[in-house]
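Page 42, continued from yesterday. The earlier attempt failed because a stray header line got pasted into the input along with the sequence. Redoing it now with the clean sequence only.
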Amino acid sequence: MYQLANPARFMRLSGLLLPWIVGLAGLLFLIGLYAAFFASPAERYQGETVRIMYIHVPAAWLAMLGYLLVAVSSIGSLVWRHPLADVSAKAAAPIGAAFTLQALVTGSLWGKPTWGTYWVWDARLTSMLVLFFLYLGLIALWQSIEDHSKAGRAAAILALVGVVNIPIIKFSVDWWSTLHQPASVIRLDGTTIHASILWPLIIMTLAFTVLFAALHVQAMRNEILRRRVTATRLRHVDRLGAGAAGAE
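This time it went through. Structure tokens are written below.
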């Protein structure tokens, strides 16, 4: 892992792997979408609307996973000063925000025929909305502070404070009475979902996870290039300033 701390090595390796990651994501989506919309049955009570689950559930999982990635990267930035940790955190935040918004929108579309309303202020939905605002706060910090090292430290502290929201999202349906259904896939006593629905869900989750990885790697590459351009411009400005001072 420390060999990848060198941005040049990361750029070379990621450039080789990225097309394969994108191709794998596309293949998994083709298989998952076919299984979700053609191979799996409609649910007994919810009918065809249950197919929203194949988009909503992976998006919700990736929204939380993305924030954990930001938090872990923030630890690497604050504690070990890993050269790419801040890049990883900054790259992951917009992607996590997009998945969180997708989870909120698809959840609302699923909630209307199931609950009779697009939104209720129950624990699960509210904590997911808080997660979205946390992502927006992180993005705003990185955008508002020009010095990327100071911005990274401020965002890292916010990310570590906000990580307490992740277990609240996960266990909210167990701790409080909510309209949201309890956990049905990851349970100590085993899943409660039939295999004909479970396997398409697993494939779609893998597809979204690989897509997240591809987007994250590409975003990291973009951020490294952006910082290189910024550093080059600053050096050019310094040389011009030094030249002007010498001429005087």
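Notes: DSSP finds seven helices and no strands in the chain.
Reminder to self: strip header lines before submitting.
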